[in-house]
């Protein structure tokens, strides 16, 4: 696949794949760090994934491909709404899951959900063990660690969403490009 704009240099599929890898992978790293530090996921991060993913899907697969991916994202959003209603996730987790799911489809989306579930379970175990021990004062001075250590705080589930996305980075880019 080659994209050509009149008067502009040719953009090959390799360049597009590299750009999409940087965008998707970068968003996954940002969500992990941001959610640990603030227990929030910025809406702008989810919106960026939706806009770039939609443009890439339209360019690579047309309206039919975009429609298929939107259905998967809506299913993921519905799942996230249930998790939100149960008090397990925050609104940012729901939006980020749906935005990430837009990049995935079918078995790749299932693989992502599976990885997120496994990583989320591991995260929960690690945090539960972490919270059982007294936090040394040198670490308690770091607000993000002190908050993570509090038993009445939830889990920054964006960590699982982001690491799961990094595990599925290559399939995500391949799926979007068609």
Which secondary structure elements does this structure contain, and how are they paired or packed?
Elements: E1 2-3, E2 11-12, H1 13-38, H2 43-85, H3 91-102, H4 106-132, H5 137-140, H6 143-149, H7 158-167, H8 169-177
Antiparallel strand pairs: 1-2
Helix pairs in contact: 1-2, 1-7, 1-8, 2-3, 4-7
The portion of residues forming beta strands comes to under 5%
**Number of DSSP-assigned strands:** 2
Radius of gyration from CA coordinates: 18 Å
Distance between the termini: 10 Å
Biggest beta sheet attributes: 2 strands, antiparallel
Shape: elongated
Q: What are the secondary-structure elements, in order, as H or E?
A: EEHHHHHHHH
What structural category arises from helix and sheet content?
Answer: mainly alpha
Q: Mean pLDDT score, rounded?
A: 91
Q: Stretches where pLDDT falls below 50 for ≥5 residues? A: none
Give helix % range.
over 70%
> How many domains, in number, for the residues?
1
Number of helices: 8
Strands in their spatial order, largest beta sheet? 1-2
């Amino acid at each position: 696949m080659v994209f050509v704009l009149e008067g502009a240099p040719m953009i090959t599929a390799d360049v597009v794949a590299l750009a999409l890898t940087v965008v998707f992978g970068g968003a996954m790293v940002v969500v992990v760090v941001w959610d640990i530090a603030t227990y929030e996921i910025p809406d702008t991060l989810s919106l960026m994934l939706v806009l770039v993913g939609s443009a890439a899907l339209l360019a690579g697969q047309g309206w039919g491909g975009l429609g298929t991916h939107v259905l998967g994202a809506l299913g993921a959003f519905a799942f996230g709404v249930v998790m939100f209603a149960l008090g397990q996730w925050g609104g940012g987790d729901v939006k980020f899951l749906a935005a990430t799911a837009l990049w995935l489809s079918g078995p790749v989306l299932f693989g992502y959900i599976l990885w997120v579930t496994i990583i989320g379970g591991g995260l929960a175990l690690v945090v539960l063990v972490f919270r059982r021990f007294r936090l040394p004062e040198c670490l308690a001075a770091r607000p993000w660690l002190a908050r993570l250590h509090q038993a009445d705080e939830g889990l920054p589930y964006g960590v699982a969403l982001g690491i799961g996305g990094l595990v599925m980075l290559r399939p995500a880019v391949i799926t979007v490009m068609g």
